[in-house]
Amino acid sequence: MKKFSCKSNSALRNLMIGALVTVSVPLIISACRTQEMNPPERATEFVTTHLDLSDNQTRKFSPIAENMFAEKEDLLEMRKNLSNEIIDQMKSDNADAARLEAVLNKNIEQLQLKLAKFSTNFAEFHAILTPEQRTELVEKIESRLEHADKRGRRGHWVRRWF
């Protein structure tokens, strides 16, 4: 694995990408922006209601929801560790890029292991849905993305800060 030094032009970009991935993937996987997340039973009920799943589909979806929520605590811990490291770095007089990079690399390694499980769960969920249900879900997702675009919640993250 190639090590990047902070003197290179791509080091800051790599750190920012790593930070973005570390913070955003747990939010995407947990499907919630607050620390109070719905239990898997409630998620199953929500999906069943909104996509009109049959009893058989609901039984197949329930373990998938449980698998996704089982990762919640680890993902929250990773996000908390990264946030604490960034806060510590900002409070110090000098930034220790090597220490931050070590935290990012550790989180990225853990995320890579979890992404395989996420992909498997996604494939299982996709197989459960009928083509009509998938179309309905795609329409709902696209609608929410359009709404987010109109409110300025998508796009480059720096634009939201300044």
Q: What report would you give on this structure?
A:
With 162 residues, the protein is mostly helical. Helix content is 79%, strand content 0%. The protein is built from seven helices and no strands. The chain has helices spanning 9-30, 40-51, 55-70, 72-91, 97-128, 131-151, 157-161. α1 runs antiparallel to α4 (72-91), α2 packs antiparallel against α3 and α3 (55-70) packs antiparallel against α5. The longest helix is centred in the last third of the chain and has 32 residues, at 97-128. The chain starts with 8 loop residues before the first helix and ends with a helix. The relative contact order is 0.11.
State the distance separating the first and last CA atoms: 35 Å
Q: In total, how many domains does the architecture comprise?
A: 2
Low-confidence stretches: none
What oligomeric state do the depicted chains represent? single chain
Query: How large is the count of helical segments?
Result: 7
> What does the main sheet amount to?
none
Fraction in beta strands: under 5%
The level of helicity is over 70%
| Order of SSEs | HHHHHHH
